[in-house]
Write a structure and sequence with these properties.
The structure is a homotetramer of 261-residue chains. With 261 residues, chain A is α+β, with helices and mostly antiparallel strands. Chain A contains 6 helices and 9 strands, in the order ββααβββαβαβααββ. In chain A, strands 1, 2, 3, 4, 5, 6, 7, 8 and 9 form a 9-stranded antiparallel β-sheet that branches.
């Protein structure tokens, strides 16, 4: 007896059912190098009509195993449609979270190092085969407090922060471009390698460029609103305040999220 | 010069700005004991109009310090209105996450122990003073796989799972009632103390009552749909599958979230 | 048949066996207020002789349920000896991790707020009833980089850091004293509420007092070495560098840990 | 003025100083495929003599950038010696934590999938150039409770667990061999893909093979004690009990850790 295939009589459809927290090696697109190897945490779901008792959990991993070599925003439509087909579903949803690395040179000495950014691709497809894609990136930054600088005779408190940027877009968008947009709006961006002359540069740049979380989130929103390719965004800035044991946070969303359901 | 109070010319309002991740001791309502002491992680935000450069971060913690003795769903409207007043804001938002403890007796021996449930209260108020409250609870459960039981000559794989339940409601809702609803829909509920006769009971109860994540999420949805006090819900069930290193997941939402913005 | 009580023939004793990750409300000593309510994550283990097949897991939680009202370093010997007695063990070990709150006034305006510190008590007793106690605290601090200040024409990068301090001692030691020791060695300590004049104070204090992780860890070690009550310590300092996405770390241990086993 | 290079007068040597939590892509040895790409979190420390004020943090990342293509237990001695040389240190220490993937076929249908295991390499070198290497792996397993099976008329509670295995060894040891050793001692091992006939197999295998955490930790210790290549080990087993919201844990260590300091 195939329990999953039995009829269900509760008359309640399930929005999403599937697998969560599967760790898998993936290859993602990299503008400079063609592609890069990384490791993802993956969630894959489909809907389940009211009359079906259960989904087929093993098929998610089987599909992933097939698609692994070419996982990217560009192949997400294929994966989503395969999920619908193999699981006899009306809709499908996938979330892939992974660290992405970009080689970045120190600002004065040009010493090379790799910066890590946590990224997430989210894809959904509905019964009419409309596909919704979201690209997210978390970018570490440095912020210097304008109030602290203004009121103090010397110095200004500053700290590491994180920017959480989610976008919907018309044409393919590079992770590298989302990162660059965020980094140029910070008091200063951060690096993996800094020699003495670099450290002088980033200290002075930050101090000359003090910004609240409110300033950073607005400057990012300004750029995104001016970009015709961006159709929706949500941006949050979180500062790990060096004078508190809690964080400062600000977020702006460009409107309601489109809903496929 | 008060930098926060300067005029901003970017013409971009901020949806939420405030403090995040503040750990604070709080007292919450407890049906059997009047109240209980616990420790919360708190986020507090207000909106910021386009013409204001910055909010006043210290006022959030000052307000919290005043309200601490009586934090509950019942006082959330007060806190939210105070946040609006003290921060000259149009809207306010607060999220309070904490462990909640319920004394629970073992099913046969009645040995007493405490169960812990992670809870969250979320409150929002908008410019028209409409208040939106959400009560959330995470309930650990045990599930036995119906397919595994059906196809195997003996045994059935089972595992710990977690149910994530969020509700909106007309009248005040007790955490204890949300927990009880979830626990009676599991293959078996879990306990902190189980003696031998209790362990026999829960093993046999679970084996007699196999359920997929799909079954549990539907049985909870059925009860919530029948409850006139519940105006909205989202329920997710996550099973830490004992045969995999990833989880099974299913969720049902009763409709669109009401939006205050 | 009582499986746990069967004889084991593998001839391998188990160092520690018991329960891990039990969340429980506890009351701990508080110098100003007598005691305070908080929530702990608890691990409890005993040894298991080579001839015993299994321990009795339920007895750990039963014991904890009895002792809960008076959990402190002062009662740890009692708990440890009860664990040995109730579980027929030669040795016992307990770890209790919890947030501890201290009311702290802002440095200029004296605005009150609560600071949170993650603490851990570790206790062990061996077959000769020697008791070993360790008290740990994690203290958030602020550090200003001396190199950045020296080489830059203005400003200096600074950041939140965490100090991990573990001590063994002759007489009872207050969490409050461990926290105070750490806070006075930082570039500046951190607060939950800071008004404008406070923020000026902490900014200037930090800038006047730049310290590497190496300086902070040494200054703490200096104080601990001078304290006759401290018989052993380990101290680590971790700075969430505002110019990098990784942390700086330094640690000093006063010697070999005493071993009871 | 080079602040780090100044003389320090506190007369306190620092055990470890360096960088913590650096995320970096690495390549590790893979028995079947030669090597595999993964992503590591890396800590790198050296000692600091009492007369030196500070270390040179940027050199750690520069060194790592050079070594990245060939990071493995086999190259750890080189990296450690380079760390000593480039940082003018007496001792050096490195910890590299990463997910490692092994292709594993389902037990009946042979459906292929990837299993993920969290691994860590730890290396230290002292002033006499003695190198100490530790290889760690975390292996997810399934365990069935012998007591529950014995006392119940049908069924038995079971759950996912994790085995934490650390080893020191004479000759190079493969991650794949450490994983295989752990998996064969569980009630049943876990898989990423299981079809219906596979699920029947693993359910019945687990039920026929019930084991406490005490049994699993002993069976692993038995194998390690019999292996002439293993000079030291520590093994912990943690079961995410399906009948509780806390875990069962047992550990065995083969003796005192060798100390280089």
């Amino acid at each position: 007896k195939d329990v999953q295939n039995e009829r269900d009589y509760r008359n309640i459809a399930i929005n999403k059912v599937g697998i969560k927290g599967l760790r898998y090696p993936v290859t993602v697109l990299d503008r400079n190098n063609g592609h890069q190897h990384t490791v993802a945490s993956i969630n894959m779901y489909v809907d389940l009509p009211h009359e079906c008792k259960g989904t087929h959990m093993s098929r998610f991993v089987e599909l992933l195993h097939l698609f692994r070599p070419k996982l990217s925003l560009k192949t997400f439509s294929d994966i989503l449609n395969q999920m619908k087909a193999h699981l006899n579903a009306e809709s499908a949803h996938i979330e892939v979270t992974f660290p992405f690395f970009i080689e970045k040179q120190a600002p004065v000495t040009a010493s090379p190092g790799l910066m890590d950014y946590t990224c997430r691709f989210i894809g959904s497809v509905n019964s009419k085969s409309s596909v919704d894609l979201v690209s997210e990136v978390v970018v570490p930054i440095s912020s210097v407090c304008p109030c602290s600088k203004e009121i103090s005779d010397y110095g200004a408190h500053n700290q590491r922060g994180k920017v959480y940027l989610s976008t919907r877009f018309k044409k393919f968008i590079w992770i590298e471009d989302m990162v660059a947009l965020v980094e140029r709006t910070a008091s200063c961006d951060v690096y993996s390698v800094l020699k003495r002359s670099d450290e002088k540069y980033v200290t002075e740049k930050g101090f000359s460029n003090p910004k609240f979380v409110e300033d950073i989130v607005r400057d990012i929103a300004l750029e995104l609103k001016a970009d015709k390719n961006i159709t929706w965004f949500a941006v949050g800035v979180e500062n790990y305040e060096s004078i508190h044991n809690h964080n400062a946070y600000a977020c702006i969303t460009s409107g309601q999220e489109p809903s496929l359901l």
